[in-house]
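Re: that chain you flagged

S.,

Sorry for the slow reply, it's been a week of failed gels. I finally had a moment to sit down with the sequence you sent. For the record, here it is as I used it:
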Amino acid sequence: STYFCMMNFNKKIIVTTRITVCVYVNIKAQKPVYTHADTLKGTYSKERSWWDLLHYNLHVTFNTEDSSIAGYNTIRYKILKSQKVMQIDLMQPMQIDSIFQDWKKCDWRRDGNAFFVNLESEQTVNLQKGITVYFHGKPRVAKNPPWDGGIIWAKDKNNQPWISIACQGMSAGVWFPNKDHMQDEVDSCSVHFTVPRELVAVSNGNLKMIDLKGQDQITFSWTVLNPINNYNIIPYIGKYANLKDTLNGLGGTLNLNYWVLAENAGKAQNHFLQVKPMLRCFENWFGKYPFYEDGYKLVEAPFLGMEHQSAIAYGNDYQNGYNGKDLSNTGWGLKWDFIIVHESGHEWFGNNISAADVADNWIHESFTAYSENLYVEYLYGKKAGAEYVIGTRKAILNDKPIISDYHVNSGGSLDLYYKGSNMLHTLRQIVDNDSLWKEALRGLNKTFWHKTVTSKQIEQYLISFLKLDIQKMFDQYLRTNQIPVLEYKIKKNKLRFRWTNCVKGFNMPCGITVNNVSVKISPKTKWKKLSYTQETIVVNENYYVTSKKLE
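Prediction finished late last night. Pasting the structure tokens below so you have them in one place:
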């Protein structure tokens, strides 16, 4: 989860900032041990890969009296290969009651949180089919949402029910049966949440219908027209008021809806004025908002925040910063609401462009953390934006590589936030052409529009588009925990320099100041030299590297 990572990250910062050298130490991480459950969850197996997920029609009733839920999910799919065993995921202690296809009851075998369903009907390649899965239970309760995932049965200040779910790291299988792998997003979905009649149920996309269910219950039906990650499909249930607005953006008129607890409507109206300039900034840098058909929503939630597509969870208590703190310690982070900006940045990176494997989640978090300093730049200028991203370096641990092992649902270092954003800031210096850099960021969102991708695809796109030899840079910052060191020495008016603490063949350009003159050099792992008459050398701080003068 975004904030599972961020919060634990910050707790570690409190310890490590006392030992400043830790930023540069190559800490040898223990080799992880993976389980059978990790493989079941993280592998795009033969029981998953033969069918293409098309649509969910999800019906769930929330019982506030005993903290249980019950319902069914009709899953539409396209047949890619002729197979008859399908993997469906639902986490314990949730239970599947029955599964039907073509009015035939299907048998299944449970293996932990995976259900292997035996389909009785013929599975003909290129045809579309559906199965309906009935389920019930008491989902795992989040102990400290959103850092610990699960369902949240909370109360608002007026002691009224306030319910939601945070499940990015844990997976959506914590509460409803689905194809729970990031490689295959559902193309669209319809969700129908039945709740006590005095409450409102908000979800992703557009509200299509409200249906009274007798004297005690009411059903809210929402429709999502765009592809969406499983963990982004979320209910928000409470005593909500709705504030409406519109933005004239790159894709036309974008509907803005703010669903807030009724008593907070006044301060929300003022505080959420930050939304429009933020969206204009991101459309400028990344291209048009990816989900015009589904609109943009902020929904007040009983936890800090999450990037739920077109229905962003907001719980930052109507204050600037991250829980009132500036993560950069520069002052710039207190001039805007971190949750509004960061989670909205995910609409482009994470929701529009989605990683196919958890190991590549830097695609979500590095670009989105980088969007923070682009927003600072948009408001206060390029120097301020640079100061912000450089200020976040004190949070970098360099404990292990950002990219982890594939096919086992394993995330890498929490440095995927600010080490990743500083890598991108460094790349911007190498490009040294802001128009081209903006074209590259926009091109990413256009080329991989509503797609799941790998790190290699993103890397190769940037290499090709920018026409730069930067593969070793990606290998260095994403696949090791080493920060390159620019070693240099000056003898007889000759400046000699090289890269150390780096991958073989590392060849990243770097900016330096020599005698108050800015120069870009091209170090390699072997010594290179230039002629200079004095010894004043300063590495440009916009490059995330360290330096060492040798005698």
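What I noticed first: Confidence is low (pLDDT under 50) at residues 1-27.

Talk soon,
D.
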